[in-house]
Amino acid sequence: MQEKKENNTRPRLFLAFALSMAVLLGWSYWFAPKPPNVPVNESATPQPAPAAVTATQAALPTVQEAANTKPATISNVPNRKLRIKTSLFESTFDSKGAVASSWEILKDKSPQEGTKEIWADGSTPNNQKRLQLINQDTIEGWSPELPFRLITGDQSFDKFINESEFVITTPDEVIELKDGEERTIEFLLTGENNTEVKKTFTFRGGEYVADLKLTLTRGGQPVSTVKVAIGASIGDRAINNHNFYHIESEAVGSIGGHIIRHQGPSFTYNQNKGALSDPGLLDWAGVGDAYFAMVAIPSKQTEGIEYSSFQYQHQTAKPFYDGIISWILRREKSSETRHMITAFVPVPADGSVTKIFTGTKDYFLLSDLNDKLSKDIGRQIDIEDLINFSNYRPIRYITKPLSIPIIYALSFLNNFTSNYGIAIVIFTFFFYSLLFPLRLSQTKSFKKAAGNAPKMKEIQDKIKALQKKGVPMESPEMRQLQMEQLKMTKDALPIGGCLPMLLQFPLLIAFYTAVTVSLSLRQANFLWLPDLSAGDPYHILEFAFAISMVLSMKFTPTSPSVTPEQQMQQKIMIYLMPVMMLWIMWQAPSGLLLYWFFGNIVSFGQQMIILVCIVTGK
Question: When comparing pLDDT for 300 and 564, which is higher?
Answer without folding.
Answer: 300
